[in-house]
Specification:
Layout (H helix, E strand, L loop, with lengths): L1 E2 L8 E6 L4 H11 L4 E8 L15 E4 L5 H9 L3 E4 L6 H6 L1 H20 L4 E7 L22 H20 L3 E6 L2 E2 L12 H10 L4 E4 L5 E2 L2 E2 H13 L3 E2 L3 E3 L5 E2 H12 L5 E4 L14 H6 L8 H13 L6
Parallel strand pairs: 2-3, 2-5, 3-4, 5-6, 6-7, 7-13, 8-11, 9-15
Antiparallel strand pairs: 1-12, 10-14
Helix pairs in contact: 1-7, 2-4, 4-5, 6-8, 6-10, 8-10
């Protein structure tokens, strides 16, 4: 069962865990642009995020971990809503250290939930499309079984399950989104666990071949970070809740090789690809059923892939490393 409340007259103070990261910093910038939002606090241990992502904003950055119970108590106490994005990302990283992924993604989420439960604080949390795993049905709808293929996916499913269980058991106002291949400005490249869009753009700007794992015909539902930030902000302002997980993507299906073609056109560059062996734990095909999402956010418009890639390339080209 899903529900919303009317917009509150009092400004909403928001805590964003992982707020200095890629999605978190984009969300913080969206939040501070809204008159209905009061104070915005970003809690981040800066393991993958950076303080520079929040430069020139009115966001208060608190450096620390979601595993720190006392710190969580302090920062949640001042919030009307919490958007929980802090996580240890990446399937390959979880294969290298499964316990670390579990500790941050699962145990960390329970600690956030406990801090919210004490004050009945509205919680919006990030899960992942990776929870569908080996299920081959397309598009992926929320009633499908979940069969994770990696420790990362299992940890995100555990986190999502805890969020929904706290909603059911304790009446906590909560909403769990399943993210699908989010991309856009502020997404880092140049490291072993970088996502495909920034990795491709980085290689293209350096004049290097794009590394494709497997045959390149695997498909993804790419979602622009600006759209994700707007949905998350709307969920906070309207206090949206749902007893079931909700896909946050729009039913697009683009292969990795098609993505390379789109980037070549956007960047006006001749792009080469090189193929390497498929990666363990990667899902073959991903495409969202967006029916639940559109039922909750009826006026939502998604940024098309071509437009999103244009904005992302523009941001990359503004960085000193590519000058």
């Amino acid at each position: 069962m899903a529900g919303t409340s009317t917009e509150r007259h009092k400004p909403v103070n928001v805590l964003v865990t992982g707020g200095a990261g890629f999605i978190g910093a984009n969300l913080c910038r969206e939040l501070v642009s809204r008159p209905s939002i009061g104070k915005v606090v970003a809690l981040d241990d800066l393991s993958t995020g950076t303080a520079a992502n929040l430069a020139d904003t009115d966001v208060e950055l608190v450096e620390g971990s979601i595993l720190d119970r006392d710190l969580l108590e302090d920062v949640v106490a001042g919030a009307d809503a919490v958007v929980h994005l802090a996580a240890r990302p990446s399937v390959p990283r979880s294969l290298a250290d499964p316990f670390a992924s579990h500790e941050v993604n699962a145990t960390g989420t329970v600690r956030v939930l406990e801090a919210c439960r004490r004050r009945n604080t509205h919680l919006v949390a990030a899960s992942s499309s990776s929870v569908y795993g080996s299920v081959t049905s397309l598009p992926k709808h929320e009633d499908l079984p979940t069969r994770p293929l990696s420790p990362y996916a299992a940890s995100k499913l555990a986190a999502e399950s805890y969020v929904l269980a706290y909603g059911s058991a304790f009446g906590l106002p909560a909403l769990a989104f399943r993210f699908f291949n989010v991309y856009g400005p502020l997404q880092p490249a140049g490291h072993a666990y970088a996502a495909v869009v920034p990795s491709f753009i980085d290689a293209a700007l350096r004049g290097e071949p794009l590394t494709v794992f497997g045959d390149g015909h695997q498909t993804r539902d790419f979602t622009y970070v600006g759209t994700v930030a707007r949905v998350l902000a709307d969920a906070v302002v309207r206090k949206v809740t749902c007893a079931s997980p909700v896909n946050l993507a729009f039913g697009t299906r683009v292969s990795v090789l098609e993505l390379a073609h789109h980037l070549a056109k956007t960047m006006e560059l001749a792009i080469e690809t090189r193929h390497e062996a498929p990666r363990r734990g990667d899902v073959r095909d991903s495409q969202a059923d967006d029916g639940s999402l559109r039922g909750l956010f009826t006026e939502l418009t998604a940024v098309p892939l071509e437009q999103g890639l244009t904005e992302t390339v523009k941001w990359f080209r503004s960085l000193p490393a590519y000058a």
